[in-house]
Design a protein that fits this description.
Elements lengths: L13 H24 L7 E4 L6 E3 H17 L4 E4 L11 E9 L1 H5 L6 E9 L7 E10 L4 E6 L4 E5 L12 E2 L12 E4 L5 H14 L5 E4 L3 H10 L4 E4 L4 H13 L3 E3 L11 E4 L4 H8 L5
Parallel strand pairs: 3-4, 10-11, 10-12
Antiparallel strand pairs: 1-2, 4-5, 5-6, 6-7, 7-8, 8-9, 12-14, 13-14
């Protein structure tokens, strides 16, 4: 049974949640403009992580440095957990979980499917299953859009240049797909960078593909989750996700009326993350988690 009893039970007021959501949007947009507008002709690879194909670009580092600086200026008592590892322990009980470029390989190859993901969470962001997102934003630099949500506030998409959250001007409210039949569902997924992991994921998809309409592999977990939230795919499932891949998209999906699950009895995370509308989420979970069958 999945419970939240290990999480911080304190819930900020609606005014504080709105302020946190607004800051998520501002941060994500600032980093999105940096990586788009200052992208060099040749993107330099600064390092690799899990494998030689799992790269960190110089712009990943610049984006994370910018986010750190802005967060520390606005919320000096909060913690920060980022993909590139420059973490900060806070004292407020809130932690900013950031992915400076989600979809780095797409960014490296100039494929317009990458994002900046920013979320603020309560609980222990460094422990899988030990945190809960309060607000988040996913900026899509190529489309000059930002998708955002806070607990109890709905999920929205606005242009980068639009007013802050709270104003209806040019905002579009998100809602998940109403598809109920697995065989008609368009499913998004992704792959890890380790060759053995990719091979296992490919084997799973051999059995999944005949049972769904089709599969899409976009290359950014944050954008996959947004696409579930806006109904442009019916469901998403992937293993190997970290908190920074998941945090902002999770709250956006839920505020769009969707459900986000992990393996049976567990919260979403590395083992499995499944996102879909209420009618599809358990059938999709069963495709990827034999324990549910």
């Amino acid at each position: 049974m999945v419970t939240d009893e290990h999480l911080d039970p304190a819930e900020p007021s609606s005014a504080v949640l709105e302020e946190l959501e607004r800051l998520c949007v501002d941060l994500a947009v600032a980093a999105a403009r940096l990586i788009r507008d200052e992208r060099p002709q040749q993107v330099g690879v600064a390092a690799t992580k899990t494998t030689d194909t799992d790269v960190v670009t110089i712009m990943d580092q610049r984006s994370e440095e910018l986010l750190h600086r802005l967060i520390r200026g606005a919320r000096p008592d909060d913690g920060i957990l980022g993909e590139e590892g420059a973490d900060v322990l806070g004292t407020s009980g809130l932690t900013w979980v950031i992915d400076p470029i989600d979809g780095t390989v797409n960014y490296l190859y100039e494929i317009p499917a990458y994002a900046v993901s920013v979320a603020v969470v309560t609980g222990d962001a460094r422990t899988e299953g030990g945190w809960r997102a309060l607000a988040g934003a996913v900026a899509d630099p190529s489309r000059e859009l930002v998708h955002h949500a806070r607990r109890g506030g709905g999920a929205w998409t606005v242009p980068e240049s639009a007013p802050a959250p709270g104003s209806p001007t040019r905002a579009r409210r998100l809602a998940v797909s109403t598809e109920e039949r697995l065989g008609r569902s368009l499913l998004a997924t992704g792959f890890g960078y380790d060759a053995d992991v990719r091979a296992r994921q490919a084997e799973v998809l051999r059995s999944v593909l005949p049972q769904v309409r089709d599969i899409r592999r976009i290359g950014s977990a944050a954008l996959d989750l947004v696409r579930v939230a806006d109904g442009s795919v019916d469901a998403y499932a992937e293993s190997g996700l970290n908190a920074w891949d998941l945090a902002a998209g999770w709250v956006i999906v839920e505020e769009a009326g969707g459900v986000v699950l992990g393996r049976r009895g567990h919260r979403p995370g590395k083992a499995l993350t499944v996102a879909a509308g209420p009618a599809l989420v358990q059938p999709v979970q069963a495709l990827f988690d034999p324990a549910t069958q």
